[in-house]
Amino acid sequence: MTNPGRRLLVAELSQRRAPLLRIAAWSVPEALPALLSGLLVSQALDQGFLRGQYLTGLVWLEVLLLVVLAGLLATRAIFPQLAAVVEPLRDSLVRRLVSSTVHRSVAEIDRGDNAGLARLVELAEGIRQLTAGLLRTLRPLLLRLIAACAGLIALAPAATPLLLAPLVPAGIGVWLLLPRLARCRRELVVQEEEIGRSSALVFAGVRDVVASGGVDRARAEIDHWFTAHARSARRMTRLHGLLTLVISLGAQAPVFLLLLLAPWLTGGGHTTVGELVGAVTYAGMTLAPAVGELAGTISGPWLQLEVVLRRLAEVTEPVEQAAVPAQRRPAPRGADLALRQVTFRYGSHSVPVLDNLDLDVPHGDHLVVAGASGIGKSTLATLLTGVRSPQGGLVTLAGTPVGELDPATVRSRIAFIPQEAYVFAGTLWENLGYLHPAVTEQELDTAVDAVGLRELVDRLGGYDAGLGPCGVQLSAGEGQQVALARVYLSSADIVVLDEATCHLDPEAEARAEAAFVARGGTLVVIAHRISSAVRARRVLLLDGSRVHLGTHERLLETTPAYAALVGHWRASSAGAAHDERAMIPDPR
Asked: Residue 502: which of 523, 475, 521 has the closest Cα?
């Protein structure tokens, strides 16, 4: 097993020492049948049946039966301990994968990975099943092998080296074949993932593929992975066949040699007939099956666990974090935001979403960002708030690069509300006061009245009402109002709303924006309706090729793209009133 996979499994299992120790303790009586079967059969023959003392022989066989029953009871007692090991193991792996998936998504690694959830379930459940299977089978197999060898040494010490000699070349053959099997299995796993990935990409964009004449190319790419997978599967079958042959020869050779040497062993006084039968019992009924099962387990579930663990180690590899300054800069006094030559792209070879953008947002400004859907408005919001870092240029707060400030300082100075507001599983008071733990009821009343939340407070019966998990009692609009009131009560100098009022009606949206303007500080709104731009002091238009900054009226006069975005704005008051309620269209 590869080092990363082994370290991962050992680290997880080391947290469950108690049930593992109990499994080890119960393994001793479980191994007694394999250890004592040959000896008891030998005693039943030599001391009983071959001397005509049939009752004595039956007593020895009854002892063997009791030993077998003891082994069965021990096996039964092991299963609850197995559950105590593998069930928490799965939960721990799920937590590890969820944490890794979230961090990789935030860091823009595996962006849009639709197979993430399937991989989460497959890897965690697969490791649970394989670990349980190996603890249930590999452990007793090893004990049976040790017991069989000990029994052979006890009954036929003169022949034991000859009997065990064939296992050496068989072991060497298995050792040589296992790395090839492991590589082949890893290839199969990667090829299956590529088949799913490439197929999903083609099917998701099938209309574009057909329209651009790329059907042959798409078919060739998918066919490449299917062909490679079939080739690997055939190679895997051949290797398994060769492994089975090596194992069969090594496992059955001791029985054949024991029967071949029987005249010499009994005639030379090396063993009795009973000891010979006992040795055959060990070699044929314990050793040979155990060797075959052990090799099959190693080449099957063990290799599969190795591959799955390696894959899990890859997908949960810690995300490389941006270099943290050795010493954080002190919190700046001002609250002016600025972007200087900011460039951001979602892939190293993709077209920049923002390219060499310069923007000043002075303290107290009311800026609305407008543009077609997918043009980069939300990306700009995450850059302004420090959620993302640009690949080029700087984002500064009062002249200090945001990346050099303590994250707690950034979070306290800049508040960000995304489109889907988060409501905590707690009371309304706890939700509203999350960013202001010492909030008073008077402050709550002020915020609630400002953003239009009073009706909800009255309906719920006050601030101590519970909201349930994720605010199940609230509508989407009410959830957004809770988030707005929460940020209203915070100490943030800068508030960025990324379509944070999209579930509110135009009047409620206007009321919320007016509340934040009256609150003081900087307000940046990613517009959901063009009416937000009408109320703003300045409007920033993103149109893909360049940016336009100015007042609503100025952009209408000078920027055709902006006029198209507001629906070819008309000067008449009636037309303006109608258009102001329209959602931002895509002029393309």
From this structure: 475
